[in-house]
Design brief:
It contains four helices and 15 strands. With 281 residues, it is α+β, with helices and mostly antiparallel strands. Strands 1, 2, 3, 4, 5, 8, 11, 13 and 15 form a nine-stranded mixed beta sheet that branches. It binds 2-oxoglutaric acid (AKG).
Length: 281
């Protein structure tokens, strides 16, 4: 970051019919990340909170709760819970989320990839997320993949996600890093890939924005991003929903079970029961 001042992520309001303005689509294309303010009202936040209660009390079968050395608070990570957690299913399939994702991804086909809940409890200071790109973890070729990250709490800029502006272009794939122990290799890391660039020594513009509940960040799966731990005395939580579109095909590279299914075929789209087609023209 080389003394770089962190600038705001470009922010937009969704239109009255719950679609993103063209400028937001253009900003995502250019910067690799965009913020939609007030994308979801309190009613949808309440549905997500019901989902969190269920996910944390046993409904999510892929849930990790971790407490880092020296931290008073833990952090919880749940993946691909929509089939077990009814309120998450309701939010993903019955809110206007898919309409927004469809427009932002500029795709004819919109496929649900997985949901991801991340709760950094108060004073989980060391629960930092290292610089990475989401695509490094996916067994997928193609570039039409986005993450729709809905803030559930007030998040000041110093606790917010950070992005390297424009780092999704060209679509260079970097090596997956180990979130738990960044100095050790990630178990599915592809050693033929370069490590992500070191933001500390880079003069690439860094973007970050304070968020309010219901605001949503959308970024491309090749955009480099990171996040600090939660030094606040309150929760810092988000539910993100990841989508893929046209030209995304399975490549069978080693990955977590979350991103695979036994029915997938190399070189073919990933549509199946686990990754359903949600919109198409
Ligand atoms: O919210 C965070 O702290 C990190 C989220 C993230 O990096 C991701 O979902 O890929």
């Amino acid at each position: 970051m080389k003394g770089n001042k962190i600038k705001d992520v470009k922010a937009f309001c969704i239109t009255r019919d719950n679609t993103p303005p063209d400028d937001a689509v253009e900003a995502l294309r250019r910067d690799g990340v965009v913020c939609l303010r007030n994308a979801f009202r309190q009613e949808w936040m309440n549905v997500i909170e019901q989902g969190i209660d269920q996910a944390l009390s046993g409904a999510s079968t892929d849930l990790d709760i971790v407490q880092r050395d020296g931290d008073a608070g833990s952090f919880s990570v749940s993946s691909h819970a929509w089939r077990e957690v009814e309120p998450f299913r309701e939010f993903i399939f019955e809110s206007h989320l898919a309409d927004i994702a469809w427009a932002m991804l500029e795709t004819t086909q919109l496929v649900l990839f997985y949901d991801f809940l991340l709760i950094k409890e108060p004073r989980s200071d060391n629960a930092a997320t290292p610089w990475h790109q989401d695509h490094s973890y996916y067994p997928l070729d193609g570039t039409k993949a986005i993450n729709c990250w809905v803030a559930l709490d007030n998040i000041p800029k110093e606790s917010a996600l950070r992005f390297m502006k424009g780092s999704h272009r060209p679509a260079t794939l970097f090596r997956a890093v180990n979130f738990d122990e960044p100095r050790k290799d990630y178990r599915h890391a592809r050693k033929d890939l370069p490590m992500p660039p070191d933001a500390a020594g880079s003069d690439m513009p860094i973007l970050a924005s304070a968020m309010s509940p219901g605001d949503m960040l959308i970024w491309k799966s090749y955009t480099l991003h990171s996040a600090p731990g939660n030094r606040l005395d309150r929760r810092r939580a988000a539910l993100s929903v990841n989508w893929v579109g046209d030209e995304i095909v399975y490549n069978a590279k080693p990955s977590l079970e979350t991103y695979r299914d036994s029915t997938l075929t190399i070189g073919k789209p990933i549509v199946c029961k686990k990754f359903p087609l949600v919109r198409c023209t």
